[in-house]
Amino acid sequence: MHSIVTSHLYYCNSLLYGLPQYQYDRLQRYLNAAARVVCLVPKFDHITPVLRKLHWLPVRYRVMFKILLLHTFSFNFFYHRIYIIINSVLEYL
Which domain range does residue 18 map to? Predict the structure, then answer.
């Protein structure tokens, strides 16, 4: 259950940026339900401690985290490429 829900919810979740709040709430309800099933938590117990125990971010923050992570990876990749190109050009001078 854990891997099915999280993989479907987190796959390409950077595309979810800018959704209306009601869509985030809807996705959060699915995540909360999955956390309740995984940890066998009753329906009316608080879900925030369960999500923390599972190390699951709320959907809205997970989307922002994914965008920042992709931005960091792309910046590091291009910085590394530019560094290699500049060094190769400087070798010929």
Answer: 2-92
Q: CB neighbours of 66 closer than 8 A, spacing ≥ 6? A: 10, 13, 14
Cα separation, 14 vs 28, in Å, equals 15
Kindly give, in sequence order, each residue whose CB lies less than 8 Å from that of residue 34, ignoring residues fewer than 6 positions away.
Answer: 1, 2, 5, 6
- Residues 30-37: what's their mean pLDDT? 92
Cα dist. 47→30, 35, 37, 61, 67 in Å? 12, 8, 11, 16, 25
Number of domains in the chain: 1
The pTM (predicted TM-score) of the whole model is: 0.75
